[in-house]
Design brief:
Structural class: mainly beta
Number of domains: 1
Strand order of the largest sheet: 3-5-6-8-9-10-11-12
Helix content: under 10%
Low-confidence stretches: none
CATH superfamily: Lipid/polyisoprenoid-binding, YceI-like
């Protein structure tokens, strides 16, 4: 079976079911501290399925994120992120993303992905800019496709409203969060 196929002159992943490789997947986020410093974090517990359709625009994505796997490089901040002030992992251990539409870019290797992101039982629409980076066959014969995605959200839309007002009038934690996603998919062979 071919790992890729050519559609209108562009090499794309073959149709079929692909699963997220958890050891090569990261959902990252970037916020601002004091409105100035970038603070980066990531979730390493990511799993899911991508069904690539014969018509790539009809493909679908279903991903689950283990919220307890948040890591920002500071244990105290990570504990605060897991608390009821933010993700409340004791009551909401996972977040999910389910696609609802895919608009392919002109070159065929980029797309605008829309879907529903659920955090703390709050579901809101999200749009991600997706890049297909290519494919490879690993040393064990697994066919892999690699994607990168970015987007921006207002964390308060999901009830993540904890903050502190600074003397200067600004906020200690930015409302706007940049999303940075890197993922390798492994093709499932029937």
């Amino acid at each position: 079976m071919a790992t890729t196929r050519t559609i209108t002159g562009v090499e794309l992943p073959a149709a079929g079911v692909w699963t997220v490789d958890p050891s090569h997947a990261e959902v990252g986020f970037v916020g601002r501290h004091f409105g100035l410093t970038k603070v980066r974090g990531r979730f390493t517990g990511v799993e899911g399925t991508v069904t690539i359709a014969d018509d790539p625009a009809e493909s679908s994505i279903d991903v689950t994120i283990d919220m307890a796997t948040v890591s920002s490089g500071d244990d105290a901040r990570d504990d605060h992120l897991r608390s009821a002030d933010f993700f409340d992992v004791a009551h909401h251990p996972t977040a999910t993303f389910r696609s609802s539409g895919l608009g392919l870019g002109v070159d065929g290797t980029t797309a605008s992905l829309t879907g529903q992101l659920t955090i703390k039982n709050v579901t809101r629409p999200v749009t991600l800019d997706v890049d297909y980076l290519g494919q490879a066959t690993d040393p064990w014969g697994n066919e892999r496709s690699v994607f990168s995605a970015t987007g921006r959200i207002n964390r308060e839309d999901w009830g993540l409203t904890w903050n502190m007002v600074l003397d200067s009038g600004g906020l200690i934690v930015s409302k706007e969060i940049a999303l940075e996603i890197e993922v390798e998919l492994i093709r499932q062979v029937a």
